[in-house]
């Protein structure tokens, strides 16, 4: 079984199939990257070529980095009697949202025709229609 080509194996201007093999993509996917201008390329006539240094730049520019400073660490608390817990308590905004949701739910419940409050209301007076 033949090893896939590496970046060092590429010529200075790689064809789409050569670049696709190095990137682990299909030729169609590389063509899509060119059409959306996400990867640098050189047109020779009507044929696109990928410069060798464009491949590591493309990888570096599109690498998603974790945002450790924005993600708070979970607080772990455990006791000898019970399992470990990651519950840190509701945030103020979440508590306000939950309270508002409960308030809306109780108001909807009380106005629902199947609720108990509906049964307590007196029946409406029915006016018979005159038939002709």
General description of the model:
The chain has 132 residues and is mainly α. It has a domain at 7-61: Arc Repressor Mutant, subunit A. The protein has 5 helices and 3 strands; from the N terminus they run E-H-H-E-E-H-H-H. It has helices at residues 16-23, 27-35, 54-61, 92-110, 116-120, and strands at 13-14, 42-44, 47-51. The protein has a 3-stranded antiparallel beta sheet. Helix 1 (16-23) crosses helix 2 (27-35). The longest helix has 19 residues, at 92-110. The chain starts with 12 loop residues before the first strand and ends in a 12-residue tail after the last helix.
The CATH architecture of one domain is Orthogonal Bundle
What class do helices, strands and sheet pairing give? mainly alpha
Query: Largest beta sheet, briefly?
Result: 3 strands, antiparallel
What integer is the average pLDDT? 79
Approximately how much helix is present in the residues? 25-40%
């Amino acid at each position: 079984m033949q090893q896939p080509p590496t970046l060092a194996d590429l010529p200075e201007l790689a064809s789409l199939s050569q670049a696709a093999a190095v990137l682990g993509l299909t030729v169609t996917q590389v063509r899509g990257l060119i059409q959306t201008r996400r990867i640098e390329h050189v047109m020779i006539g009507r044929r696109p070529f990928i410069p060798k240094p464009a491949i590591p730049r493309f990888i570096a520019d599109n690498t998603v980095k974790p945002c450790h400073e924005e993600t708070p660490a979970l607080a772990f608390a455990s006791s000898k009697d019970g399992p470990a817990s990651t519950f840190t308590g509701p945030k103020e905004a979440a508590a306000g949202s939950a309270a508002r949701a409960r308030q809306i739910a109780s108001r909807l419940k009380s106005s629902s025709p199947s609720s108990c409050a509906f049964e307590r209301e007196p029946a409406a007076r029915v006016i018979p229609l005159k038939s002709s």
